[in-house]
Write a structure and sequence with these properties.
With about 300 residues, this protein is α/β, with parallel strands linked by helices. It has 2 domains: about 240 residues, von Willebrand factor, type A domain (Rossmann fold, 3-Layer(aba) Sandwich), CATH 3.40.50; about 35 residues, no CATH class. Helix content is about 35%, strand content about 20%. The chain has 8 helices and 10 strands. Strands 5-4-3-6-7-10 form a 6-stranded mixed beta sheet, with helices on both faces. Strands 1-2 form a two-stranded antiparallel sheet. Strands 8-9 form a two-stranded antiparallel ribbon. Helix 3 packs antiparallel against helix 4 and helix 5 runs parallel beside helix 6. The protein is elongated and about 75 Å long.
């Protein structure tokens, strides 16, 4: 099967039918990646004040409003209802390092598909959805809204940056993952669910600081997009490796040096430990298979695709 180089808005709209079988709510199945001691306890929706009423037998005494009771000379309790929505902010990476894929699709396409699935699932749950979509030279900041129109606008911007990657190398930009996380921190001041969809290229100590800042007042999920070829790539004649210092010719018929593979593994393990310490779950998503099935498996709902 030919790898998908880019994706269209129509294709992202069609993914609405696949946005089932996983949930961003705090209660997770026992086998979910988000359950257990080392996973984030997602706060879920907050409680909104609904009404003040007379105390009735059986009411929790902790809900008594003592000021109102003293003023009205009869016991009164405050009644709360679960808020109907929680803002979800998608941080979607469409930079040039994402423009790589060895099977099925580019990392940039997989990220776009994940953004669509998260958008439709959020709207189905009645929550607001917004986004920080970033490329090499542009950051788009869309505030969370609860409407089909807002969801389509978000996905339009994702496809626009996605298709721009195939038009050829753009002028070198200085926008990195930290720029996007800074924009997310300004937008998500508290009680958001921030979903970062990226290969984490360029992550450094500042990334850890920004992730800590975001996680202090919000729930954060890292959806780490990776290509299964990874560091085990076997070279063919004429292949080069791209680094921040330039292009490096690779000897035909050889594999990446063992020390490079070890550095790759060490880097991955380091960020897993950093996010685990912050109680931020990491969901690894491969480009080799459609992401909807991977999300269902990671969230522990292998067969509940109708929910």
């Amino acid at each position: 099967m030919d790898a998908r180089i880019t994706i269209t808005l129509d294709e992202l709209v069609l993914l609405q039918a696949d946005a089932r079988g996983f949930s961003f709510l705090p209660r997770q199945p026992v086998h979910s990646l988000l359950s257990g001691r080392h996973a984030s306890r997602l706060r879920g929706r907050g409680l909104a004040f609904e009404e003040l009423r007379h105390y009735a037998q059986g009411d929790d005494v902790r809900t008594i409003d003592w000021k109102a009771t003293a003023r009205l000379r009869k016991p009164h309790v405050r009644v709360y209802a679960e808020e109907r929505e929680r803002p979800v902010l998608l941080v979607v990476d469409q930079r040039s390092p994402m423009f790589f894929g060895s099977r099925r699709a580019m990392k940039s396409v997989a990220a776009a598909e994940l953004a669509a699935l998260a958008t439709w699932r959020t709207l189905q749950a009645g929550d607001r959805v917004g986004g920080i979509i970033f490329g090499d030279n542009e950051v788009i900041d869309l505030r969370p809204q609860r409407s089909q129109t807002a969801g389509l606008r978000l996905l339009h911007e994702v496809t626009r940056l996605n298709q721009a990657l195939a038009e050829g190398p753009a002028a070198s930009g200085d926008i990195g993952i930290n720029t996007a996380l800074e924009a997310a921190a300004r937008r998500a001041n508290h009680d958001h669910l921030v979903v970062v969809i990226s290969d984490l290229d360029g992550a450094d100590e500042d990334t850890q600081r920004l992730a800590t800042r975001l996680a202090a007042h919000n729930d954060v999920l890292i959806v780490a997009v990776y290509d299964p070829l990874g560091a085990s790539l076997w070279n063919h004649p004429g292949m080069v490796a791209s680094t921040r210092e330039g292009l490096l010719p690779l000897p035909a018929g050889s594999g990446f040096p063992a020390d490079f593979q070890q550095q790759f593994t060490d880097l991955l393990d380091r960020w897993r430990e950093i996010f685990r310490a912050l109680q931020v779950p990491v969901l690894p998503i491969s480009t080799a298979t459609p992401p909807a099935g991977q999300l269902r498996e990671l969230f522990g709902q292998h067969f509940s695709v109708g929910k």
